[in-house]
Amino acid sequence: MFNIKKLYIYCLGVVTGIANGLFGSGGGIIAVPMLQKTGISVKKSHAASIAVTLPLSVVSAVFYSMKGTFQWKDAVVLIPFGLIGAVIGGFLIKKISNKMLRRIFGIILILAGGRMLLK
Amino acid sequence: MIWLYIAALLTGVFASLGVGGGMILIIYLTMFAGEDQLSAQGINLLFFIPIAVLSVIIHTKNRFIEWGKIIPAIITGIIGAIAGTFLAEYLGSVVIRKIFAGFILLFGIRELFYKEKESATSAENCSSCKQDSSQE
């Protein structure tokens, strides 16, 4: 049976998957606004985007690894720091302004993106 | 080396706040640690997995994840992810780096000019909360 809503969810998956595989990141950026359009609340969209990107990242990581694009140990040594960061983030979320955070993040991305394009 | 750990820490912070933290790690690895773009992307993918597992466990406990709704997206997403990895390999690090740069530049502009609609957001939250609870 043809169902627009279902078709939209399938498309959401494909687009998120392509971004995840192509850039090794950024799937969530695409998934969150698309999930919100399906009527899922803001908070639940963030949670759902992680649930979607987790299996996609596993698949992409396996394929990247099979092609020998990266060394496992380079990633593994960073994981404890990432987890500590995630815990700090959990506390910060109540204290730091979301607007300020987005501004700082935006500036970092613009500077880095500009430099990468020029260099 | 210490900067690499700080970058990983910051990535974890940004990732948990739901603002695309993985990009920070890729930027650091390619700009300052001399990693090739595809290698940095692979490192970030593997790095993200345990953080995501932790988040998903917490969110599932809090009943924030409606699995029924997202399973179809995961299935097609896996196909997309495989296509994406092959496309990345086909295009190569240099081209992917430029596309990635354009992607983060556009996203950065969107973040910089992001408007927080306090009242609208809370109203939206409220209406979607009702919607969500009615669906549960």
Could you list the spans of chain A in which at least 5 consecutive residues all have pLDDT below 50?
Answer: none
Proportion of beta-strand residues of chain A: under 5%
Estimated structural class of chain B? mainly alpha
Q: Describe the global form of chain A.
A: globular
**Which structural class do you get from the secondary structure elements of chain A?**
mainly alpha
Gyration radius of chain B (Cα, Å) is 18 Å
The dominant shape of chain B is globular
- Largest β sheet strand count, sense and barrel closure of chain B: none
Descriptive report:
The complex is a heterodimer of chains A (119) and B (136). With 119 residues, chain A is an all-alpha fold. Chain A contains six helices and no strands. Chain A has helices at residues 4-23, 27-36, 42-66, 72-76, 79-95, 98-118. The longest helix of chain A has 25 residues, at 42-66. With 136 residues, chain B is mainly alpha-helical. Helices cover 84% and strands 0% of the residues of chain B. Chain B is built from five helices and no strands. Chain B has helices at residues 2-16, 22-31, 37-61, 67-112, 118-135. Mean pLDDT of chain B is 83; it is low at 118-136. Chains A and B meet through α1, α2, α3, α4 and α5 of A and α1, α2, α3, α4 and α5 of B.
Question: How are the SSEs ordered, and which strands pair?
Answer:
The complex is a heterodimer of chains A (119) and B (136).
Chain A (H helix, E strand, L loop, with lengths): L3 H20 L3 H10 L5 H25 L5 H5 L2 H17 L2 H21 L1
Chain B lengths: L1 H15 L5 H10 L5 H25 L5 H46 L5 H18 L1
Helix pairs in contact in B: 1-2, 2-3
Give a quick summary of the entry.
The complex is a heterodimer of chains A (about 120) and B (about 140). By secondary structure, chain A is an all-alpha fold.
List keywords for this structure.
A: 119 residues, mainly alpha, B: 136 residues, globular, disordered C terminus
